[in-house]
Amino acid sequence: MISKIFFVYLIAIYVCLVVPLQDTLTVTDVANCPAGYYCVVDIRTGIINPQPCPPGTYSEIGASSCTPCSVGEWTVRHGSSYCDLCPIAHMCPNPSLAPLPCPLGTANSWPRQPSCFACSIGDYTPALQRPTCTACPYGHYCSDPAEQPKLCPPGKSDFDNNLFSELFLLQQEHIVVLVK
After folding, report:
1. Tens of pLDDT along 138-148?
2. How far is 56 from 35, CA to CA, in rounded Å?
3. Which helix (H) or strand (E) holds 74?
4. pTM for the model
5. Which of 46, 48, 59, 171 is least enclosed, having the fewest CB within 10 Å?
């Protein structure tokens, strides 16, 4: 007797844990398709089979297809009924992936952006995920916005840091600048 009860208990656990929700979700009218799903009618059986929207897409109630997230929006969820806005200091180049922090040398002070913006000459970012670029401090030069500021050479710390950064970049590109 105990073994039969135990066997029935195991079957109940199997049915509860293994049978997916999708197989148990039934809809009789496409207009009743739940948000986050799209409903298609199987032409062979006439059964309406709700399917979860894949990541990067969403749907509202009664949808027959999923809608892609707009530029600067994202969702990694299956069966999403909305897309999230890309946050400040991040970029969202792919709507089916989570936001990426702005890399060094870039910044983003606006939400809903697919990319971060490069810092200007003479600016840098001290860390990842910055909403704005930082001006190169006095007595330093910023030859690469993805690197920390470098001290100006001895005797050269009293001129415009941005000018020195621009001259350094020109020197790297093998352009000769003559100064009187």
Report:
1. 888 898 999 99
2. 15
3. strand 73-74
4. 0.68
5. 46
